[in-house]
Design brief:
This protein is mainly β. The chain is 5% helix and 41% strand. Helix 1 crosses helix 2.
Length: 387
């Protein structure tokens, strides 16, 4: 089996490919013409990369041959389009052609992607949700989310008002959860027509404000709306985990109520969280020292923290990770896992390294280094390629 790590960076997309046994890793890239790529996903030979910026506008790149060739579907315009429209020589230089873009200038970036039951989804900045039924050639906006009654109260996080996580139910195509910073968790059970905000703590009735002066903290019976990442547990229809600005939380009822499972971790702050592909009780997260304390591993010593009991207890996994003068950050979409046995876990850093564990987090090794700032990591497994 060939395993390819899809790596989105500030300077394009990269593929880090390992052969049988998940070794012999090789890097290819940058792809996607150096665009900032916020997220990537794959299915067989198809790979999609979403991103954009003020210059390019927003778009989604697609490769149908495993990453050898790429083409972009532009969704909104950027400054380059305005320049080209007024400078024929510049337009000729970049190969620009005049034509309407499907969403004008209504958003600036694609921040997340999801492929669920044949439908491709894209989350945007500012927060919105798009859907495509033809592998990304044409898109429609799901207005039920952006028309939610609470929309006028959504506040941007440090990176802006971004829809960064899309989670589906393998058994039900109409069921989705999304995460917005800093508006919280939302769920639909009718394919995106209507949405319910789901941020209540399980003990909301007896809870007092944790830090009323901090808008990201639990208050008014809610977990806090600055959710950083969400994952769904396998085999447990409605179990979800989230890492947010103030801790790690578990829900056993599809997000209708949440329990704080941060006790045992060295800090409440962090971005990514992953769940084992077969064991709903095994999860991994990578805590950082705090929002305003530098956002690097506590004591400048890297560790992935693993729980085998759904967050009741935690253990630090450090073997192979830097334990001195480690100041990197791991961002919200920069941790992924494969489905092999034992399961592999991978994460990328803002200093350009990709680390891998092929024994469920016990031991780690660096499989790529000196890449641009890593924004996202996902896994593409191709069992039909022996490499």
């Amino acid at each position: 089996m060939q395993t390819t790590i899809l790596v989105g960076t500030t300077k394009g997309a990269f593929l880090v490919t390992g052969q049988n046994g998940r070794d012999g890793w090789k890097v290819s890239g940058p792809h996607c013409d150096g665009w900032s790529i916020n997220h990537m996903i794959g299915d067989g030979q198809n790979i999609w990369a979403g991103g954009g910026d003020d210059w390019h506008g927003a778009g989604i790149w697609h490769s149908g041959d495993g990453g050898q060739n790429w083409a972009v579907t532009k969704l909104t315009k950027g400054m380059m389009d305005d320049w080209a429209a007024n400078d024929a020589d510049f337009a000729k230089t970049i190969g620009w052609t005049d034509g309407p873009l499907p969403f004008g200038d209504t958003f600036g970036q694609v921040w997340s992607l999801g492929l669920l039951h044949g439908t491709l989804y894209a989350g945007t900045k500012p927060a919105g949700l798009l859907a495509s039924h033809d592998q990304g050639k044409n898109w429609e906006k799901l207005d039920g989310l952006t028309n939610h009654p609470s929309a006028d109260t959504w506040n941007p996080g440090a990176a802006g008002l971004v829809l960064h996580t899309i989670v589906g139910d393998p058994a039900n195509p109409d069921k989705l959860w999304i995460g917005i910073s800093a508006a919280g968790v939302f769920a639909t059970e009718d394919g995106g027509k209507t949405w319910e905000r789901r941020n209540r703590m399980s003990n909301a009735e007896s809870c007092t404000d944790h830090a009323p002066d901090d808008p990201t903290a639990p208050h008014d019976g809610d977990t806090g709306h600055c959710v950083h990442n969400i994952v769904r547990a396998p085999g447990r229809d409605d179990r979800l985990y989230q890492q947010n600005h103030q801790g790690v939380w578990r829900s056993n009822d599809g997000g209708r109520s949440w329990d704080n499972i941060t006790d045992g971790l060295p800090s409440t702050f962090g971005f990514p969280i992953r769940v084992h592909p077969r064991d709903p009780d095994m999860i991994w997260t990578l805590p950082l020292n705090g929002d305003s304390a530098g956002r690097f591993p506590p004591d400048a010593a890297a560790a992935v923290w693993r729980s085998k009991d759904a967050g009741q207890s935690w253990d630090a996994q450090r073997n192979g990770l830097p334990q001195e003068s480690c100041y990197f950050t791991v961002l919200r979409q920069a941790m992924a896992g494969d489905t092999q046995d034992p399961a592999g876990i991978y994460f990328g850093t803002n200093s350009g390294s990709v680390f891998a564990s092929t024994d469920e987090g016990t031991n780690w090794y660096e499989i790529a280094r000196h890449l641009p700032t890593i924004l996202a990591v996902e896994v593409l497994e191709n069992p039909n390629h022996s490499g």
